[in-house]
Amino acid sequence: MNLKFIDIAIIFGYLVLTIFLGFWISKRASKNLDSYFLGGKSMPWYLLGLSNASGMFDITGTMWTAAILFVYGLKSTFIPWLWPVWNQVFLMIFLAVWMRRSNVLTGAEWLKTRFGHGMGSKLSHISVVVFALVAVIGFIAYAFEGIGKFAVMFLPWDLSTNLSGMEISSEHMYALVIMSITTLYVVKGGMYSVVITEVLQFLVMTVACIVIGVIAMNLVSGEQIDAVVPEGWKSLLFGWKLDLEWTKFPEQVSAALNNKIATDGFEMFTIFMMIVIFRGILVSIAGPVPGYDMQRVLAAKTPKESAMMSGLVSLVLFIPRYLMIAGLAVIALVYFNPDTLFSGGQIDFEKILPFALSNFIPSGVLGIILAGLIAAFMSTFAANVNAGPAYIVNDIYKKFINPDADNKTLIRLSYLASILVVIIGISVGFFVMSINELLQWITAALFGGYAAANFLKWTWWRFNGYGYFWGMIAGLAASLSVPKLFPEMSIIYAFPLVILPVSALGSLLGTLLTRPDEEQVLVSFYKSVRPWGFWDPIYRKIKADDPSFERNTAFGRDMFNCLIAVIWQMVLILIPIYLVIRAYSSMTISIIILFITMFILKRTWYDKLEEN
Fold first, then answer.
1. Tell me: domain 5-92+106-273+295-432, CATH 1.10.10.10, correct?
2. Predicted TM-score of the model (pTM)
3. If I label 559, which of 10, 75, 403, 601 is the partner at 20 to 30 A Cα–Cα?
């Protein structure tokens, strides 16, 4: 694909502006670790929310989501529940407030408020640091594979080279170049650079999304979509089985699409949904993994603002993003080109997005869209690069090696740790074969191993640091070993059959075979955070000393609000898809549901948010 001069100029201008902004505000990040990794907890909640939404608007995930919409139609909107996308909902309703009350720097440091300072707490601290670094490296590898595959489709230069006998493809060279540029401003500016540049990136991405949605609606009619998609493609309803069979494309293409459904493991869709809902509730209550999402919660000024920030993410993210996703999917459906998308007798679904852009977007507009998509990659990558090193510097070096290190030393070490994390993530990325394969491992296996220990830490007073350590280690070991020990088992079904039982067993044995945590630590945690759950012995202890203390009785209200918010979040996804595929009656119903759910949440959630 040959880009015009105007497209290259737009992309180059955007990259220069991003680097300039990152360096311009970098002085504010060099005061101390709190400034470098959390922006001094002084940034407005709406900027943090836009930044967080930008970090979730990744190019690799967009390619994957466009591919599953192409194959599964409206039912594909359930598949991201694997993350689960409900994470933001549970944060918005109650978890962000609980977490922000700790007033700490990282998710690992937060554990001392729950488990104290004994050996169990230290072990739990180490386990979450290891998990955080594995997750960040996994996300960097995921981003590396995605941006390289995308860039090689539209950038005109052949960058393939031989380095000391090692063949490096053009795909990987593009990824290296773009990652290096992003690392430059992240390392220099820390959280300030990340947030400000991500807000700019979000604005560019939103423009790109709207443009693609409009172009798709001008190119593709509802009748053209109906002519190629199977029965049920436009419906959210499903039975015991998915019952989606492709027949309207040529035989080779239809066979490849049906094979994709079979190999993904989604054919028994009701069983899949049961697993996803069970897992979604468990993982969402467990809270976010220790990464950029948690970092923004901890960076908010107050607990109330952390909740508002989490709510803003869903509100601003899904409508523009799914305009782009739906637009790209319908263009690819109607103008499908087997010669371009077939590779080795199979469809490379990860090329759907580049295929649509390279063939149907005019010059000038293409430059804006490509800048937006590169912005999407840079924002996700930058968020992870800024989050991961915090655990190396704050939770390893400062805690165990040099507690008295001055700020200058810590900031310099943060630069080095950022570069080290990027190098390791890229090295792993060289061996990734499939975006979908890595994504499913991160969401279903790695995050699944995190669920049991982190669910119990909120809800059960007896759960201690040793239980957390063994639960996390067992979950991490299971998630890393399942692909090797059970290569034929779908990673989705591995969660309830292997990963969750192993992690839960490690959590329970580690807890019950050791002493409870210090009562003073549990009392302090319960008084400040006030989670609901099984805390009766601690509640009675506090009540005896302070008769005015009241337990958290909001479990029912929180769960009701989470249910309403899940529906609210879902219609935010469906509205732009219905618009692009011309399902106007369904879109109207979704808009009505959107306003009803917003009214309910205003009364039952927002009006009851506490300032403290």
1. no
2. 0.81
3. 75
